[in-house]
């Protein structure tokens, strides 16, 4: 067991040291801005640095190769540790957060969910606002790395459909993995810088532009004010729409488009489906808002598109309280909450490709009922799809809704009403951010929820980010028996 855990803990130690480095950078920022949280970040840095060095020095080895079982444990444990260490500045801060609130906020950040227990965010010290944004930005980078390199290798929930050579963890593929990692980081950095510049040119202050760019590109949704994006102009909202959409697209296809001007991005079935959903639902919402006479036509189109893209990309920004737009809008937002963006992006949700595969599976079953002797080949992006990939996607969907039902029931047992229980469970598992209703809707937060509910939702956010199966497999006796 020690030999099994050693490389996992070593990599976790390296990630912990990276977290410590970020804390030191924010401490330097605190010193420059002369805000009162510098000491908080130095204390957190000392604790995190000590734990990271202990893991790295204690588990150092000359060479090791990670196998599938170790990757399952590494993926889950790294996200848990980063969340716990990320909670330290929030716990020690002058804001006096409890342990459950600090962990909830950190998990929400690192999983790019965007749910919050904080109110009066605009009164937080700049260093804490920056730390929340950094947690989401780091989480978003981890999300695309995990989705492109690890999950297809682990064959989780149909992700093997997007298997690339970089997912082969043999010795000969290491240069390819490193090359892909560099390109992913470069693309992520480029989007972040471009988004920052566009926000700044659209009228944001530089500090707001940096924070909101990190929250946008990571599809996280943490803002620097309780009003989220509602205090900015329509021009800022369109900048946000552009970069939320880009961040919800597969990063491997974005790399191909930017490097080789490849048009594969616009021929991809998943991307076309994602654009089609945004266009159709935006027009429906716009028509409804115009009919209700809530906004002028162009503003109605902007508000509808912005809030829809924010929810479907699981960013979680809000420019208005869309729960006040009528029952049709509420129902529509609840449905699109489950869809999410594309596989290999920073967004959460069930992902568009799973709905497309489920539809193809249903169509095939109907054809077999009509022609029992017929042979039908299911194709996706012009290539045949193996039956086990479709079945794994269906199994994931079944597990998702079972987990949703169980989480909803547990929250209801804690005294929450049905709307709050259901949408809190849904927004945690899909990593969207705000739920629906008066308590956790876009105009509220999660502060008033019971302590047990915050711990449960923190676990649900991690499960949703890790595609459920990656985390749940650790709770099976078979995994630990090897």
Description:
By secondary structure, the protein is mostly helical. Helices cover 66% and strands 1% of the residues. It has helices at residues 2-33, 38-58, 68-86, 88-92, 99-110, 126-154, 174-202, 206-217, 234-247, 251-260, 264-267, 269-291, 297-312, 327-336, 352-370, 387-413, 418-430, 451-465, 469-472, 477-481; strands spanning 379-380, 383-384. Strand 1 and strand 2 (383-384) form a beta hairpin.
Defining traits:
mainly alpha; 482 residues; 66% helix
In short:
The protein is an all-alpha fold.
Strand content: under 5%
- Contiguous low-pLDDT stretches (5 residues minimum) are 164-175
Radius of gyration: 22 Å
- Give the N-terminus to C-terminus distance in angstroms: 10 Å
The percentage helix is 55-70%
Arithmetic mean of pLDDT: 88
Order of helices and strands: HHHHHHHHHHHHHHHEEHHHHH
Query: Would you report the number of β strands?
Result: 2
User: What's the number of helices?
Assistant: 20
Please give the order of strands in the largest beta sheet.
1-2
What's the layout of helices and strands?
Blueprint: H1 2-33, H2 38-58, H3 68-86, H4 88-92, H5 99-110, H6 126-154, H7 174-202, H8 206-217, H9 234-247, H10 251-260, H11 264-267, H12 269-291, H13 297-312, H14 327-336, H15 352-370, E1 379-380, E2 383-384, H16 387-413, H17 418-430, H18 451-465, H19 469-472, H20 477-481
């Amino acid at each position: 067991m020690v030999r099994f855990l050693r490389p996992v803990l070593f990599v976790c130690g390296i990630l912990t040291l990276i977290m410590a480095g970020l804390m030191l950078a924010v401490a330097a920022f605190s010193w420059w801005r002369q805000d009162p949280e510098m000491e908080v970040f130095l204390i957190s840095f000392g604790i995190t640095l000590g734990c990271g060095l202990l893991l790295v020095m204690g588990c150092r080895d000359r060479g090791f190769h990670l196998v599938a079982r170790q990757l399952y444990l590494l993926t889950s444990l790294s996200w848990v540790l980063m969340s716990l260490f990320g909670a330290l500045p929030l716990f020690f801060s002058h804001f006096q957060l409890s342990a459950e609130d600090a962990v909830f906020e950190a998990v929400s950040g690192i999983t790019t969910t965007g749910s919050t227990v904080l109110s009066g965010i605009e009164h937080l010290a700049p260093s804490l606002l920056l730390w929340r944004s950094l947690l989401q930005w780091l989480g978003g980078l981890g999300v695309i790395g995990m989705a492109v390199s690890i999950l297809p290798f682990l064959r989780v929930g149909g992700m093997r459909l997007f298997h690339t050579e970089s997912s082969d963890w043999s010795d000969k593929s290491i240069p390819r993995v490193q090359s892909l990692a560099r390109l992913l980081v470069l693309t992520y950095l480029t989007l972040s810088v471009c988004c920052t510049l566009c926000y700044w040119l659209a009228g944001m202050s530089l500090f707001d532009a940096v924070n909101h760019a990190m929250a946008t590109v990571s599809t996280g949704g943490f803002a620097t004010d309780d009003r989220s994006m509602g205090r900015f102009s329509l021009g800022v909202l369109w900048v946000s729409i552009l970069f939320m959409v880009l961040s919800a697209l597969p990063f491997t296809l974005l790399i191909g488009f930017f490097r080789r001007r490849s048009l594969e991005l616009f021929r991809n079935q998943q991307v076309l489906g994602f654009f089609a959903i945004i266009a159709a639902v935006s027009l429906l919402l716009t028509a409804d808002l115009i009919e209700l006479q809530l906004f002028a036509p162009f503003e109605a189109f902007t508000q509808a598109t912005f809030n829809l893209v924010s929810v479907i990309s699981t960013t979680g920004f809000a420019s208005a309280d869309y729960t006040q737009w009528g029952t049709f809008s509420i129902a529509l937002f609840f449905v699109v909450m489950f869809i999410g963006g594309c596989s290999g992006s920073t967004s959460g949700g069930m992902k568009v490709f799973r709905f497309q595969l489920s539809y193809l599976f249903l169509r095939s079953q109907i054809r077999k009922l009509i022609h029992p002797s017929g042979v039908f080949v299911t194709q996706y992006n012009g290539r045949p799809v193996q039956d086990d990939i479709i079945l794994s996607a269906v199994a994931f969907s079944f597990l998702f809704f079972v987990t949703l039902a169980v989480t909803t029931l547990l929250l209801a047992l804690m005294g929450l009403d049905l709307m709050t229980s259901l949408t809190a469970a849904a927004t945690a598992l899909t990593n969207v951010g705000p739920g629906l209703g008066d308590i956790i809707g876009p105009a509220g937060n999660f502060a008033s929820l019971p302590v047990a509910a915050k711990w449960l939702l923190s676990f649900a956010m991690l499960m949703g980010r890790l595609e459920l199966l990656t985390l749940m497999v650790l709770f099976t006796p078979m995994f630990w028996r090897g």
